[in-house]
Amino acid sequence: MSHMPGAGGSDAQLLRADVMHERLRPVRHRFVYPVFCLRLNLDALPHLRRWWFGVDRLRLLSLRRRDYGPRDGSELAPWMRARLREAGLAADGEIWLQTFPRVLGYAFNPVSFWLCHDRSGDLRALLAEVNNTFGEHHAYLLAAPDGGPIEPATVLHCRKVLHVSPFCRVEGGYQFRVRTTPDTAFVGITYHDADGPLIRTAIGGRLLPFTAGPVLGALCRQPWMALAVIVRIHWQALRLWRRKVPFYGSRPPEAAVATAGGTTQANAASHAASREPPST
User: Which spans does this entry mark as compositional bias, Low complexity (predicted)?
Assistant: First the structure.
């Protein structure tokens, strides 16, 4: 089920995971990398202080509120709940943020996920906050087509707005699937253009306690993870370029004006996706 926030009563978890990316055409290109993420209850952020982790403080691992949501350093949970009310979504329970931490102050997050639950613990909305390597960002707010709980079989749709890869146009849309158990977490994304599925990505793995042992163990195994994320993005782009995949650059002609942190409302996104072929 996808409605188990805070398994074991914790307000934070470590996700030791793999990231998979697969391009289906014009050439098949696939890679898998190990990563680790944090999953944090936003209401508990003020209390998540460790010698090795801090919020808006320099630690081995940290989270900076200015990187998310309103990007002004304010509290994240009230901002998110205001967006949910505006969208008419009954997600009045815990809100969990899944994100790459800053490692010694540095991070690049291609996408962070805000998992928004109701008071019964059911997942009711997903905010996918996307950053590109050109310094732009956009947030896609998603809900089940029927307005009900988001289950493992639920497919969430939205239209693509933000230019992400120089090897893709700004067209089509995304399909998201979310699955959480007490021990595991998974988010899968399929991007479709006018010709059908083009790219499949996923991040999933094992949930561990947010304690010094598992967290520092993950950091010791991948001490350069934060830097490796951006290096790997450019390395894989070079491989695609060498394989002569069409390159559209940072400003493809058909791209809409980049959004600086705008949020796509869930109902509008769902309705738009229902009228067009789903794409990523």
Answer: 256-269
Tokens of 149: 């709980």
Contact assessment for residue 270 and residue 143, using Cβ atoms and an 8 Å cutoff: yes
Q: Pick from 176, 171, 166, 104: which is nearest to 140 by CA?
A: 176
* CA within 13 Å, CB half, 29: 18
What is the domain partition of the chain in residue ranges?
Answer: 7-275
Q: 């050439």: which residue's tokens? A: 27
* pLDDT tens column, 68-85: 999 999 999 999 999 999
Q: Which of 240, 195, 172 is nearest to 23 (CA)?
A: 240
The pLDDT of residue 269 is above 60: no
d(CA 97, CA 269): 21
Yes or no: say if 106 and 227 are a contact pair by the CB < 8 Å rule: yes
Other Cβ atoms less than 10 A from the Cβ of 135: the count is: 9
Q: What pTM did the predictor assign?
A: 0.88
